[in-house]
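User: Run a structure prediction on this.
Assistant: Running it now.
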Amino acid sequence: MISPAPIPPRSTLPPGARPPDAVPWSGEDAKAWRAAGVPRWARPRVVAWGLALVLLVCLILAFVAADSGPGCTDAAPCGTEWVGYAVVAFFATLPYLCLRLPGVAVWMLPVASAPALTGVFDADLPDTPADLIGRWLMVVAPLLALVPVIVRLRARRRQRAVFLKVTQGRTAPLPEGFGRDGRAVHRCWAGAVLLLVAGGLLTWGAVATSASDARDAKATRTVATVLEGVDLDEGGTVRVRTAAGGEQTLASLYPLDHPVGSRVTVLSGEGPPRLAAERYDAVDQQMYALPFLVTGVLLLAKSLQLHLARRALRRGEQPVLRVFAAGHFAWQRLYAATDTELSGAAVDCAAPAYGEAVWVLGEPQEGPDEEDEEGAEDEEDEEEDHGEHPAWRGDAVVHGILAEGSEIAVLQSCLPLLSRLNPLPPGHGADAADEENALVVAMTVGGSNSREGANLAAAVIGGLL
């Protein structure tokens, strides 16, 4: 039998923290907010993973189609493909956009279907079964993913409307010192570094391609007959005989595209002899750069979103609502103001930004009552909590609009968290005034709306991404 989650002692907001006059969140309002949320079938992780799986299938079909498609010829030589690479990089961003940036995904998903739809009716492209299936999947998958994204955005609007109705128009400014979002700054720098690496790799590929094309333009062209093709694990060789009777063995990426008896053009001059049908291909540089490029772009996009959300939160007064909160170091749950037993509908929030918490100095209150002291002693006797159960609970005030995916700020007591944020040496006790300070923590509202006792590992990881 699974034991119930331990309930930690309760803390209250100190009077000196000047909590705003906010309406308490009732249990009925919490249920209404939860009912307005995203349906289970449209959850962002379901959509993102489903789209990623379909795109992986499309990639496999593309490799299959490449093996059965037309080979390299002098009229249509192989080489570096930049347009196709841009399409692949664009499609690789879609799962993350569906997961974290649905406002961007709602525009990008239709754009993704357009080139694939054009390719379906392009008579010049190969029409092998793998090609056709892959193209239709690339048309249908983004459009199917668009449906839950739209449902999710509509659910956000419903939750905003429910929240604003509950607040009854009461607003309050955030405490002074609530500055820029450090998460946005970190993502911006990380994204810039990754894009710099990707840019260097792609520049290397572009320069090498340009130099090879210039060398090929000045090379001497000789027509030869293929005598043998040897296919190895990575590329192979082609043995040819020129019109003068001499034989040469040339390196080839696609030796099977040149059957025995076929005629090929050999380029000679600067560098080793090579096939005119196989130009320099910077695919290695492109593949090395792809994870850096995609990750860098997504980090910059998320950084911009966090920056805009924080700027909107800092601008003017924000709607406020009094709630009851419980949480751990990296996550919080918001309950109705009267739900002190943590049994009703809850809102999951990821709070990875404690490093930027704004401390609001308050006045020390009287010591905790006997019940709280007993609860604190019981908590010390328990084994160390690894993050599945709340480490504290208490009154809190939400600043901002509560909706799935939104950025909010929560004013709460810092008494239970002080030792976790600033551990003191053995034998040194915290000052009573410091223990009764409050802090403002930036949080990201989740959409799971789970109940007390559920494992929040996924929510914590999601908030850190």
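The radius of gyration is 30 Å.
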